[in-house]
Amino acid sequence: MTHPHSAHSVHVEKHFTAGDFVRDVVIGMSDGLTVPFALAAGLSGAAAPSSIVVTAGLAEVAAGSIAMGLGGYLAAKSDSDHYWSERKREEKEIEEVPDTEASEVAEILADFGLEPEEYWPVVNALRKRPEAWIDFMMRFELGLEKPDPGRALQSALTIAGAYIMGGIIPLFPYMVMPQAIEALKVSVAVTLVALLIFGFVKGLFTGTKPLASAFQTAIIGAVASAAAFGIARSING
Length: 237
Hints:
- By secondary structure, the protein is mainly alpha-helical.
- 88% of the residues lie in helices and 0% in strands.
- It catalyses: Fe(2+)(in) = Fe(2+)(out).
- Keywords: Ion transport, Iron, Iron transport, Membrane, Transmembrane, Transmembrane helix, Transport, Vacuole.
């Protein structure tokens, strides 16, 4: 019985890790594809040469990736701090009011459909194992999973890396084409294709309809860049 249980535990852990990784990639890539794209379109609308678009675009990608990465780090760190704060509180309650906490365990198990003669032996067994008891309360009473110690740094690096990857795509045409307006046309085509592909893949991973996700992602990017281009052109002209 031990072997299947441990295999199941590993599977669940991998599931959660993959979910966090995909979420971080989505956060970084969606902003990375959209913000530099809109900035480049806006500068093109203001009749800036490709060299200015590339310089400003790369500066934005650098600043944006750092800001997004830092945001991811602080969010993951906040989740971790919250978990350990709640765990200390739960540990204190188990020491000070064990009967109350035991009753809460019984209520949780009863909610799963167990009868008193079935769940009281489990409650009494947990009372003899304080760490397991705390783990049980954290997961089933508070709905909190033990955080990965390296999660904050991993989240920061993943979001920042995805932002950079996304940001380079709309800027690349400007790197090889000196005429900004011509580069803009290529950038629009390349970035919209990238947004469609990214939106489709995002839909596959997040469980939404891939085609709907693809078009939604592309439309958001197109509207943002068109707005930036239009505003810059109207101000400049």
